[in-house]
Structures are given as C-alpha cells and as structure tokens.
Amino acid sequence: MAVDRSSKRMAPGVTLPRYAVIMAGGQGTRFWPRSRGRVPKQLLRISGRHTLLQATVRRLVPLCSWRHILVVCSAEHADEVRRQLPRVPVEHVLVEPIGRNTAPCIALAAEWIAERVGDAVMIVAPADHVIRDEEMLRQTLRVAAELATAHDSLVTLGIEPSRAETGYGYIEVGQRIDRRHSGSFWVKRFHEKPSLRLAHRYVAGGQHLWNSGIFVWKASVVRAAMQRYLPDVSTALAGVWSAARGERQRLRRAYGALPSVSVDIAVMQPVTAARRSPMRVAVVRARFDWNDVGSWGAMPEIWGCDAEGNAAVGTIVPVETTGAVVYSPDRLVALVGVKDMIVVDSPDALLICARDRAQDVRQVSEILKRRGLVRYL
Amino acid sequence: MAVDRSSKRMAPGVTLPRYAVIMAGGQGTRFWPRSRGRVPKQLLRISGRHTLLQATVRRLVPLCSWRHILVVCSAEHADEVRRQLPRVPVEHVLVEPIGRNTAPCIALAAEWIAERVGDAVMIVAPADHVIRDEEMLRQTLRVAAELATAHDSLVTLGIEPSRAETGYGYIEVGQRIDRRHSGSFWVKRFHEKPSLRLAHRYVAGGQHLWNSGIFVWKASVVRAAMQRYLPDVSTALAGVWSAARGERQRLRRAYGALPSVSVDIAVMQPVTAARRSPMRVAVVRARFDWNDVGSWGAMPEIWGCDAEGNAAVGTIVPVETTGAVVYSPDRLVALVGVKDMIVVDSPDALLICARDRAQDVRQVSEILKRRGLVRYL
Fold first, then answer.
1. Which residues of B touch A368 (CB under 8 A)?
2. Which helix (H) or strand (E) holds B342?
3. pLDDT category, B9, cuts 50, 70, 90?
4. Max CA-CA distance within chain B?
C-alpha cells in the first residue's frame, strides 16, 4: 500500500516536502457573462490585480515554494493556466482530459506525488476562493500540516461561520485533539447544505464550521483512503504518471471510466463514519476571512458596499436603488428604482439577475446552448 | 390684423397652400442613454429604418410635398436635422436660439409663412410621435384642414383613448360641428393630466379624447390668436424673417425675452374659454394608432411583446422574466428573475430602470451633470 511504500522510502522523523495542489478545473457557469467556457471564473481578475488562480498560488508559495506548486485543470484551460503562472514548472500543470469533480482530481495529484516524489504533505486548495488574511491562512495550514504528519490524519479547514449560510456544507466538530494543536478537533460528522432553520441552529450552537474545501494530508494517507473507499479511482489512475511514454493516452483511458464525485462524499464522510480506520479526519478551526465566490451574489463581501448596500466595480449612478451588485469596469451604469439586482457587463453580452436568483445564472448557459448561441458561452 | 391682411391677399375661394411644421426641438432626456444632448429622441432610429423625425416628415409629405415642409429645431441639432432631411430646402429648417416650448416655436413658423408665403394651412406635428396608420392620419388631417379654412378655427386632433392614461392631457368634446366634417366637434374644455380615477371616468364617459399635440390652422388665424392671447411673443417675433439681413441676430434678441409656454396653455385654452372670439377651437376625433413615445415605458406598444410581456430590440434570453423592456441592438441581454424592468444598452453607458420609474430617467442626467460626468450627457 502507498502508506507502507512511502514510509519505506522516508526515514522516520525526516520532514516531508510540502506540495500545494490547486484545483483549477471549475467551469464557472454561474459567473456568465464574465466567465465563459474558455475563461472560467478562476482565470478572471474578479477583484484585485491578480486572477483568482494567481492569488491562490501566491498565498501558498511561502509555504512550499514555486517549485512545489501543482495545478490540476482541464485540457482547454491548460495554456491559459501556464500563461498566468510562468514560474510554475510546465510539467506541474496536471491536465484532466475531462472534469470529474474533486476526488479524481486529488487522486491524480496524489499519484503524481507518489510517482515523482514518493511522499509529501499535500495542501489542497480550490483556485477560486478569496482570502485576504493570508498570514492567518498560512498559520492555520502549518498547524494542519503538523497534524497531518503527526497523526496520519486527513485534515480539513473549517471556517468560523459568520452567518446562517445554506449554500455551504457544515462540519460538526468533535473531541479536541491535543494542546499542541490549538483549534484542532476530530470531526464528528459532515453535514450537507442545511435548511435555513438548521443553519441558524448550527451557527447558534457553535459546534459547526463551514466546510472550506481546503484540505491537508500526506499523499500516502489520502492514497490509502482512496484505495479503501474509492478503489475504482485509485486502480484506474495507478501508474498514469509512470516514466513510460504515452501518458496522455493513459490519462484519457483512465478518465473515461471515472465517476464524478467529490472527495467529501467519497472519502471524508466514509472515513469519518468508519468505526475502525487506520486514518482519521480532523478539522482545524480557521479564523481568516474566506469567500468561495460561489456567485455574483458573493461579491459585495469582497468589493464592499455604499450606504445603500450597492456594490460595484466600475462607475454607477444609483437613483433610489439599494442592494445592487454591478460589475461593469468599462461602461457607466445608471440604476433607477432598482432593488437587489445583479448587473454584469461584458463586451458582447449583459446579465440582469435578481440577487436571490444568482445560482440560476447557470440556466442561461443551458438556454444559449439550446438556442445555438454558442458564441456567448 | 393678420387675418385681414391674408384675406386681402388671397381671392376668396382660392385654396391655400399647405405647410407641415415639424416641431423638433425636444431634448429627450427621458431616453437616456440612447438619446443624448447632441442626439435627442426624435433624431434616433427607435423603431423601423427611419428616425422619428424622418418618419414624421414622410407621413406628411403626401399632404404638402417636400417643398412645403418646415422643421423647427434648436441650433445644436440643425446640422443633423438637415443631414437627415436632404430633400427639405435648407432655409426651411428654422433654428431657435434656445428652446421655448411649443407656443414660440409655432409663432416662429407662422411668422415665416406670413413673411415668405402670405398665408397657408399649417399642419403642426411633433417630431417624436409614432403613427403606423399613415393613411388614416392623412385622412383625418384633410378633414382638419378643411375645417381650419371653412371656419377659421384652430383645429386639434383628439385621439380615441385606449386606456386610462394619466400622462396625457384630455380634450372634452362639445357640440358636433356639421355633417360635412364627420367626427368633428367644437372643444368644450381642455383638461390637464388627470388622476387615475378621473382618467377612468374620462375613458368610460366617451366624451374625452387624448390631446395629440397635432394641430391644423391657418397661419393667419393662429397669428391672430397669438396677438390676442400671447402679445409679447407675437410682438417679439414680428419681422424676424424680414428680407433684411441679420436674421440670426434678430432671432437671438427676440428669443432672449420669450416665455417658455405651451400653445395649449397660452392659446388653445384661453380661446376655448373665451365668450366672444373671432376664432374657435375644434377637435377631429382621430382613429389611427398613436404613440407619443414619452419614455422607454411606451416602447412595448411599438415593438410588441412576447407571451411574458417582454418587449425587446435585440436578442434577449429571459429566464422567469416578465414585463421587461430591453433596447440592446448590439449585445445579447440575459435576464433572470426580473420583473417590469427597463434595460437600455448604449456604447458607453447602460440604464437599468424600474418600469414605473421611466419618467425619472431625467434625474440621471441631472446627477451626471452634478458629478461632472458630462461626456455621458
């Protein structure tokens, strides 16, 4: 098993190298019309001077250097990813033939590390989060990395919830681990997106954290977990990175059969639920600001608002308008008698969306496909 | 008095020439961002292949030929008006130094006719109306022209109201004039914009018509009416078109002192109210479709709607959207969960406006002025 093999390779006590694995496979249909098939959200400059991908990498470089960054993305975005990250070694951009959610993506990176490095601490992070308090993030990740090695555990970062959000999964914390790792707990249970009533109870109770989707573990440990709980995937991907040529063909063959499943559901939840298991799931309570930029509705938190709750990138002229979210860097937008509306400008298409319908922007892409207006996708 | 002078000039029974006077002085701030200070509504292609001004002229040419078209506009628009109407003699574009509402505009044209033609039947029409049933319009105008000569009356066209509109003035019809002129009545009273309750009563009663702002009269008759009820204006404008040079200076001097007043309030209403008066006010009931294009809210009537009541120029993708009014000829507009919203696209600015606030688009221009964003005006 991977665990044994790697431990054979490393003398005990030798600290493992750290690798950051950036999951950049998203399509970002909820950010139409700014994000298109060819340019998904994580490749866009949505706030600040860096794209979300660039900002994510820069946050992690101090923990593991440019030479230990891995980016997993889909074939159609590989060139743009390399263009945005010239300091990341070309062969560190791992290209998925097709997107298959987070479990295969993580397995792919774990296999690469096993093949090319032996073992390492993997810091796994989505490419499309906005985190301002970078030092706090890195501090939390250092604690998580220590836990991951000290206890061979699968560590996730849990965000102190700031509101009763129904769009996130929640982590119920269990027993505290030890004094050395403050804010660290064994995970009692994972909860899927809750009802509003339940979300309020979670926030009030103080025993639940948002599931950030940021993970830390040893490659060997996550591979072992996959072999146990997701054997199809580990078997399919075993050896895809072997030195032998024809890697691309091997990848395409392997991915054809892979299930599209998240690491939370396929690995974290069963490991947590398991009575006896060689590995356990831990959570580190994170206190940094965190925004998963799930949709345009999340932007006011990032951009800030005026007194009427209007948030904008670009010049706006609001007249008796409240709660507007406007992204229009190039053209002036005047709003008259508008309430809680999202307005997104782009060179060839425009979006007007009720704020409480931000998730449904996906539907637009589907309709465009059906109507054959593919140039807008 | 003008009446006498003209009747001296013309042998009785000789039919007068017909002149169409197009009032093109509007600024159209309610049509921002498509209409700007430099390009007001009437100079825009809002529906069909002609601008509102071009369409207005073309509707009237069959009644009085290109050589009998007069257009009154402000100095800043004169060049564009001449560009849009190459077949109108250059000297037939009468330039107002400043806009002073309809009374001075009409007086100016009447003086021109008195000076250059002697007398004529004036068909006065705003440049920014949309009328599809052109033949019916001309038929109505022929009846009005006959009335204007037969009775030396000031004739207005009254539109059969199709709804309880509170944005228009109403004309209360009185006694029917005679058999020869079907649908012709002496005017009992003019009513300003009514309350909704009153508007409903007007429509139900069948004795009230919309005041179209389209008038027919002899130049000599309207000049006589102005001399009696608006002496300052007639005195100020007397002789501005005299053959002597320095016409522009005379105009500027004259306009400096002119009141900004509408012909309805300054002439039609007092003439109607007057006990004894050499001239009377008549109305011809018009049955053609008529839209004064007062604001973007009026466009669905002109463009037509889909089943959800969405009206658009350009490609739209509505998702659970109703009552949207979209003008975006160049870019696709997707709407998600939007209700009764006006969306107007333009190269450098964008308007999002609640439909029941269409009148308040004016405020945007004021704010732009205050904020020094004049390039958007």
1. 317
2. strand B341-345
3. very low
4. 69
